[in-house]
Specification:
Layout: E1 4-5, H1 8-19, E2 28-37, E3 41-47, E4 58-59, E5 62-64, E6 76-77, H2 81-88, H3 92-110, E7 115-116, H4 129-139, H5 145-152, E8 155-157, E9 161-168, E10 177-185, E11 199-205, H6 207-215, H7 223-232, H8 238-242, E12 249-251, E13 254-258, E14 261-265, E15 271-274
Parallel strand pairs: 2-10, 6-8, 9-12
Antiparallel strand pairs: 1-14, 2-3, 2-5, 3-4, 3-11, 7-8, 9-10, 12-15, 13-14
Helix pairs in contact: 2-3, 6-7
């Protein structure tokens, strides 16, 4: 059985959780989007070293669901929240928040917006001072996603997203997320930009190259990111990724004791469920 050792305080916390002496922190709903462009490259951000969670790791755009992401006033096109809920085994309200968080966080962290003026269109360009002002207002939560879309006469395009997988942060962590992963293609005409914020570096990279860089110690990838890149590396085109038939599986790394030492297990033994 493989895994990552948990030394010191982490190991003691893990032991206490297994013994029932400490309650795990509840996991917050979150969404992550694997943004793809032709050549099957993915968009990765390196989280600043000062970040409390996943500092220095290369990650996909994403983040926690804002309570306002569940607002029924958000204009919507594509599969309904109920349909997304069936896919992710979540109630309709949670599913609405997950999809909205996926689109909102992608715009906040890459400048790419999966929305259009109609159910058949998508914004062609999101550069310019006015777009940047709105992006910053979304980040500092002075602007809700519903108001942002309404003011610009836009509808969220849930049909531009595809479900990919589901990861839950292990119970030993003090910051935990219940994260649904989506994939989406970079819309025609749009381009990513170095938007700053939680990231200090961004890159488009082929999944196989990112994995090689991680193996060589050039970059740090968390297990969900590493595994997702491994799943994507053999697809010949973005269309193939978007058209893939996925078995929706929930993964949560578990705490185990191996020869008196606490570990987080990171192999297929931690698969917690499949649809």
């Amino acid at each position: 059985m493989g895994g990552i050792p948990l030394p010191g305080e982490f190991g003691e916390r893990a032991r206490d959780i297994l013994a029932g002496r400490v309650e795990p922190v509840p996991a917050r709903d979150a969404a992550t989007v694997v943004l793809l462009r032709e050549g099957v490259e993915v968009y990765l951000l390196r989280r600043k070293a000062s970040m409390a969670f996943a500092a220095g790791a290369y990650v996909f755009p994403g983040g926690s669901v804002d309570p306002r992401d569940t607002d029924h006033a958000i204009s919507w096109a594509g599969p309904s929240p109920a349909e997304w809920g069936a896919v992710f085994r979540a109630d309709e309200r949670t599913a609405r928040g997950l999809v909205c968080a996926a689109v909102r966080e992608t715009f906040e962290e890459s400048g790419v917006l999966l929305a259009g003026t109609s159910p058949a269109s998508v914004v062609a360009d999101t550069t310019g001072d006015d777009w940047e002002a709105d992006r910053l207002a979304l980040i500092d939560r002075s602007l809700s996603f519903a108001d942002f879309l309404a003011r610009r006469g836009l509808v969220l395009r849930s049909d531009l997203l595809r479900p990919w997988t589901h990861w839950i942060t292990p119970e030993v962590e003090r910051r935990r997320f219940d994260t649904r992963f989506f994939v989406a293609a970079l819309p025609p005409g749009q381009r990513t930009r170095d938007v700053g914020g939680e990231a200090d570096q961004v890159a488009w990279v082929r999944p196989a190259d990112a994995i090689d860089q991680a193996k060589n110690g050039q970059i740090f990838l968390m297990p969900p990111t590493y595994r997702t890149l491994g799943e994507l590396r053999d697809y010949p085109s973005v269309a193939d990724v978007l058209g893939a038939e996925r078995e929706m599986v929930t993964f949560m790394p578990v705490i185990v004791e191996v020869d008196g030492e606490m570990h987080i297990v990171l192999d297929d033994d931690y698969r917690s469920g499949a649809a």
